Amino acid sequence: MSHPRISKRIASIAESATLKVDAKAKALQAEGKKVISYAAGEPDFPTPAHIVEAAVLAAKDPKNHRYTPAIGLPELREAIAKKTLADSGTEITSSQVVVTNGGKQAVYQAFAVLLDPGDEVILPSPYWTTYPEAIALAGGKSVEVFAGSDQGYMVTVEQLEKARTEKTKAMLFCSPSNPTGAVYSKQQVKEIGEWALSHGIWIVSDEIYQNLTYEGEKAYSITEVVPKMKDLTIMVNGVAKSFAMTGWRVGWMAGPVDAMKAAANLQSHLSSNVNNIAQRAALAALTGPQDEIKGMLEAFDRRRHLAVSELSQIKGWLAPMPEGAFYVYSDVRGLLGKEWGGKLINTSLELCDYILEAAEVALVPGEAFGPSGYVRMSYALSDEQIVEGIQRLKKLFN
Q1: CA nearest 63: which of 77, 78, 73?
Q2: Is residue 322 in a domain?
Q3: Nearest to residue 389, comparing CAs of 90, 38, 33?
Q4: How many Å separate Cα 395 from the centre of its chain?
Q5: Buried-most residue among 45, 119, 220, 395 (CB within 10 A)?
Q6: Residue 115: left if φ>0, alpha if ψ -120 to 50, beta else—which one?
Q7: In a shared domain, residues 310 and 340
Q8: Does residue 85 share a domain with residue 161?
């Protein structure tokens, strides 16, 4: 009997679409082409100096050269518990926190802890490209519920109930959303939380962008609005986006004690402790001055207005104003089914390929996040790059 060289489980995983597009853009840049990439969700700011300095000092301290608890440094877990109370309105203890290698590991471990083969997870779409892969790796099945630009990219309880079956074990909730920047209102969060509670459905709540909201908007946590959901919610978060620390790889998960104990057992075999130097840097991020963070948020706010204003001048390009995160998720169905550059373009995947080839602008197609017909643009770039890239799009389509 012959065996496949690669396991079916791993062979079925798709490469991260956002990283794939970003890598292609960087390869073209290395060839000397002036590609502007809006692909990766990565702030263009350097990590604040006091955080870097904390890492430098930590690297010189021999105690950080050794194994530490797999679930994370006690001081960092305590700081995360305080942040969770301050920003998620939810009181937890440090024993309910597991520090992970970035938010991705937290998402993976959350589903690994919750799902058995055949369990279903309701996945609002558009969704971050990693969610369905993490669900599949845990043996689960994604049940997509789509909300288009006409709904502000936010699903309703009626849609969720229609998707629910006896096999529904969990739901993924992300507000502010990647890829859309949509922020659910307190009332919407309440309705979703009460619906999940009434059916005993777990919620994996990705809160990585919770501090990136604009014009006084607040990102409400399920557990803050519906406190009884504390026993059925795993919160995922990290320092990557708010503190310009994508490369430091520090995230965390927080939830009920039994779920966190299970995640800790998994992590003890999967990776042990997160890099101690990076953990010390994350501790400095959470407990140190926040002035630079406010400055980054002000820049993102300015850039979202700039991007939407410029994109709205392209015929057939609908760019709703995002209320959080740092993405504009545009509806480009008005550009499809037409000839561009002598080619008939029917999908957003084909459209993004054409844009990269003809204008040297990298965008992520909607197929990476759900249905075709949409594109994601990160505005975590300089104002000059935002304007230059969209000027190229205007020349291409107007």
Answers
A1: 73
A2: yes
A3: 38
A4: 31
A5: 220
A6: beta
A7: yes
A8: yes
- How far, in Å, are 51, 54, 384 from residue 289 at the CA level? 10, 13, 28
From 287, 309, 332, give the residue that closes a domain.
287
Domain range for 102: 49-287
Q: Which ranges of the chain would DSSP assign to H, the alpha helix?
A: 8-11, 17-30, 49-60, 74-88, 102-114, 130-137, 157-163, 186-199, 222-225, 257-270, 276-287, 291-311, 348-359, 383-397
What is the arithmetic mean of pLDDT over 261-278?
A: 97
- Rounded to a whole number of angstroms, the distance between the first and last alpha carbons of the chain is 59
d(CA 331, CA 316): 9
What strand order describes the sheet that includes 251-254? 97-100, 251-254, 233-238, 202-206, 168-174, 120-125, 141-146
300 located within any domain: yes
User: Coil, helix or strand for 330?
Assistant: strand
Q: Which runs of consecutive H residues, i.e. helices, occur in 164-256? A: 186-199, 222-225
Query: Which pLDDT score is estimated for 301?
Result: 97
**pTM of the complete model:** 0.94
Q: Does 242 fall in a domain?
A: yes
The amino acid present at 297, given as its one-letter code, is L
Give the β-pairing of 97-100 and 364-365: unpaired
Domain boundary among 257, 287, 317: 287
Please choose, from the candidates 126, 106, 105, the residue with its C-alpha nearest in 3D space to the C-alpha of residue 18.
Answer: 126
**Residues 14 and 129 placed together within one structural domain of the fold:** no
Q: How far is CA 338 from the centre of its chain?
A: 32
Query: Is the confidence at residue 70, as pLDDT, over 90?
Result: yes
Render pLDDT for 131-184 as a digit per residue (tens, 0 to 9). 999 999 999 999 999 999 999 999 999 999 999 999 999 999 999 999 999 999
* Distance, CA of 292 to CA of 314 (rounded, Å): 34
Contact 355, 345 (CB under 8 A): no
Task: Name the domain count of the chain.
Answer: 2
79 phi and psi, to 5 degrees? -65, -35
Confidence of residue 22 (pLDDT cuts 50, 70, 90): confident
Alpha carbons 236 and 255: distance in angstroms, whole number: 9
Gap between the Cα atoms of 374 and 148, Å rounded: 9
